[in-house]
Write the structure tokens for this entry.
Amino acid sequence: MRAFILERYGRKHGAHIADVPEPQLRDDDVLIQVHAASLNVLDSKIRDGEFKLILPYRLPLILGNDVAGVIVRVGPRVQRFKVGDEVYARPDKDRIGTFAELIAVKEADVAIKPKTLTMEEAASIPLVGLTAWQALIENAQLRKGQKVLIHAGSGGVGTFAIQLAKHLGAFVATTTSTANVEWVKGLGADVVIDYKKDDFEKTLAGYDVVINSLDAATLHKSLRVLRPGGRLISISGPPDPDFAKELGLPGFLTLATRLLSYRIRKAAKRLKISYSFLFMRASGDQLAQITSLIEGGVIRPVVDRIFAFDSIGEAMAYVDSGRAKGKVVVKMR
């Protein structure tokens, strides 16, 4: 089968399309014929080697963390799905590889595709949807009437998180560039800070939750907008000791996460704010709940561009540019 593979870490080395063996099917797997897959900043970070210590992939590696397609085979222990089902998923972090014609995914990580979405729209959802769900619902336990700041509102996670937070009844602020101010208001944001004109940390105050996906400077500034008892959740790092414990990392890597996050954890503790790093996990059950929200018209996908699979290198370059509004998708079939 054809796949987009990484043979050496680093952007300058690139990745390329090649013929590779079809995936092996485990007893509790479904084999998905990939119709569409979306790109994430995570794919670029993996390509560049930023996660090679905590995610020690064996190269060559097929990239890709989102998939929508049709089941063409099921393992003997599979109970919830059958051949012909249209599904979507974010595979487990240890079994990525959606930029290919086929992928084997654990049954527990898969959900039936929303009937109201095309394959391309469905492929845009899993990683960002699960990230927003786990940040806002699991971690922050966001409630009606609370105030949340979601950075980078025009990005993949931001566009989904704004809609989910509004559904939960929260007051939502976000940051974006001048060109996207009115657009993110259309997604439901109550307050939009144009980062090219204003400093969010001087404008906002008394917030219950901040979801950060940007750099370290933004992370530290975000402490200033939170009330005592508030929560600062970062999906862009630095990883903390709880994350190391969750992944079962060896002692030297646990120490590394402690050192990397020391400054932000200390600053947060001084202000009586909790800091946590979120690396989302695959979950078919949560994805099924997201499906219900999509089919109910609560959340709509935001797809910026769709590329042909043969142009996936160009698609990755577009994601790297940081100009995408919502998600970038590659069409496999």
